[in-house]
Amino acid sequence: MGKEAVRSPAIKALPGKQGIPHPEGVAAYCFDGDTLKLTDRRIVRIACIDAPEMAHGAARTQYYAREARQELIRLTKRHKVRLVAVENAPKDSHGRIVADVQREDGQSLSALMISRGCAYFYPHKNQNAAFQKKMLSLQQHAIAKRRGFWAHLLSLPLARGNYTGNRNSLRFFPADCPEVQHIKPRNKIYFGTLMDAFLAGYAPARTCLFWPTVP
């Protein structure tokens, strides 16, 4: 994996964006590759990324979930961090803080995890545009270099399948997913391969998941 420094781009304030109270903290625990707990017990969802899921309920551990979690642990263990708001709302529907998490050396965890192929770009329309542009660029580079999970994922038969994106949500689905029928025709965009969808900046929808799992 590349070890280059990946600093956060300058963040301009979003209209109506609320700041994050008490933006300083110390990382204590990583649930997976995109969510961590601080020593003051606050839960933080790292902005603009999604990582393969660890097992929960009946769902099995997804491919590269353990590696992604271990990489985030390595990047954050005993580190002081700073939380920078990049969305209009400081918390998600689960009550977790959503932020660009920056280490003391100024490096962004979102950027580091994407650039090392441990997480993929997960956009929302209320996120800072410059931040999203930077994360997508890092993803495109990681794909080109086949870093992290990209090498195996893009070698699988599923990578050669067709996918349909929703321009409104910026999510994509396997072409045979029933959910595709509910996308308005004007919002549909078609991708010939899995890589095309990721390079365009769309992220997998949480329905009709295709990501491989591990025992």
Automatic annotation (TrEMBL):
On the tree of life, the source organism's domain of life is: Bacteria
Keywords annotated in UniProt: Endonuclease, Hydrolase, Nuclease
Pfam families attached to this UniProt entry: SNase
InterPro entries per the UniProt record, alphabetical: Ada-like_dom_sf, SNase_OB-fold_sf, Staphylococal_nuclease_OB-fold
Tell me the ranges covered by the TNase-like domain, including all copies: 21-152
Q: Which GO terms describe its molecular function?
A: endonuclease activity; hydrolase activity
> Per the record's keyword annotation, is Nuclease included, yes or no?
yes
- PANTHER family for this protein: EBNA2 BINDING PROTEIN P100 (PTHR12302), SERINE_THREONINE-PROTEIN KINASE 31 (PTHR12302:SF3)
Descriptive protein name: Putative endonuclease
